[in-house]
Amino acid sequence: MNLDSDLKLLRRSIDAKLASILPKDSPIAEPMLEAMRYAVLGGGKRIRPLLTCTVCSALEGGFENALLPGCAIELIHAYSLIHDDLPAMDDDDLRHGRPSTHKQFGEAIAILAGDSLHSLAFQSIVRAPDISQDTKIKAIAALAEAAGWRGMSGGQCLDINSEGKRLSVDQLRSLHAAKTGALIRTSFQIGALCAGERESSRNFQVLDKVGSDIGLAFQIVDDILDVTSDSETLGKPSQSDETAEKNTFPQL
User: Fold this and answer.
1) Which of 160, 184, 203, 211 sits in a 20 to 30 Å window from 190, CA-based?
2) Strands annotated E in 34-147
């Protein structure tokens, strides 16, 4: 099989699944639903659900087992980007080559859309048809850990509080292991869980380490691209890290 075409097909499956689980109609929250769909379906490489599905497939679990849990991780990622772009956070007006969600819909609707994507992520794991209840519980626990105070949100807090200060490389590694790396790491973890791997298994332990390393590599490349690329290529503002006096790997 051709890996490139298989990944393109898998990405189309992910996009279709995301479109199907995002609500379309509401008698009370129509603008918020529109903002949710705008944020999720308006772009993105789908790296996290691709990793979840391909890890599951590599362990002979079948990518369909991991499709909804992988989409759940993508919903958490999309919610984080909405909030990251807000004026109180990174204050970015551009995302995926389009106006950020808060620029398109206003700050209040953007915040609510992010909140609802966060909730929808965990609903999506609960509704996954091809995995056991025990696997669902473990996947929910892993995603909550990755998104919460010890993971993505905690890393974002450290990032904000470190603006204008100089961190050591080890501190920066810890920051990005939480802010960026945790969701990528849990993509590997949940992919393995959906294939029936136990957390104590050799496969799970290896994939956990690989996920941590790739999460760090992903952030290093992102830092480099912020310096070397323009906004049109990135689909978001370039040089924004330097403007905000953030700690980055090229800077240190």
Assistant:
1) 160
2) 94-95, 98-99
